[in-house]
Amino acid sequence: MRYQISGKNMDIGEALQTHVKAELGETVEKYAQRPTEAVVMFSRVAHEMVCEATIHLSTGLTAQARGTAHEIYPAFEACREKMDKQLRRYKRRLRDHHRDRVTPVEFDGGSSYILAGNEEHEDVEPESLQPMIIAEMETKVPTVSVGEAVMQLELGAQRMLVFRNSKHGGVNVVYRRDDGNIGWIDPRHIK
C-alpha cells in the first residue's frame, strides 16, 4: 500500500510517519485485504491537532475518517479508531461486493465547479444572471451499482455521490437526506 503522510503548515517527523504506517497498515489489513493508497493529512486548528485519513480500496471504495485532539498522536489514534469502526462495520458488505465484482470499478472523468453568489449587492440586479465560477477541477465518476454507491456514501464523509449506474449506464445520484435516510435520483424515470 502506498502512503502519503503530510502536514499542513507543520513538519511531520519520521517517528510519526513510521507510527502511522504501522498502525494504519494493521487496521486496514485486518478488514480490507487489498488497499491501494492511504492519504493522511495532519493540521492544526486553533489549539487542536487534526488528523484526516482517506483510504482507497481496490474495490473502488474510499473510506474517510477525521480525528481531533490536543496532541498529534491522540489525534491520529482518534482518526484510526473511526477508520477501524467504519471498516469493521462494512467488512461483510465489502466482502460480498468483492465476490460479485470480478473487475475493478471503472471511473469516468467529469468536471466539478464551485459557484459563488454575490452577497454584497443582493438588492441590485446583476448584469448577468450567471453565477461566477470560482473553482473548476476534475473529478472521478465511478461505475457502480446502487448498493455500492450507497456503501461508498456511508463510508465517506460526503453528503452526495454522483455515479454511473452499472445496470443501465445512466448517471445517478445518491444523497443523505435531512431525515437521515438515503435518497436516490435516477433521471431516466423522470418525464
From TrEMBL:
Coiled coil region boundaries: none
InterPro entries: HPF/YfiA_ribosome-assoc, HPF_long/plastid, RHF-like, RHF/RaiA, Ribosom_S30AE_C, Ribosom_S30AE_C_sf
Biological process, per Gene Ontology: negative regulation of translational elongation
Subcellular location, record wording: Cytoplasm
Domain Sigma 54 modulation/S30EA ribosomal protein C-terminal: 130-183
GO cellular component: cytosolic small ribosomal subunit
Pfam family, one: Ribosom_S30AE_C
Protein origin, superkingdom: Bacteria
Family annotation (CDD domains): RaiA
Gene Ontology molecular-function annotations: ribosomal small subunit binding
Key words of the record: Cytoplasm, Ribonucleoprotein, Ribosomal protein, Translation regulation
Homology family: Belongs to the HPF/YfiA ribosome-associated protein family. Long HPF subfamily.
Self-association state and partner proteins as the record states: Associates exclusively with 100S ribosomes, which are dimers of 70S ribosomes.
PANTHER family documented for this protein: 30S RIBOSOMAL PROTEIN
Stated role: Required for dimerization of active 70S ribosomes into 100S ribosomes in stationary phase; 100S ribosomes are translationally inactive and sometimes present during exponential growth.
Name of the protein: Ribosome hibernation promoting factor
Organism, scientific name: Pseudorhodobacter antarcticus
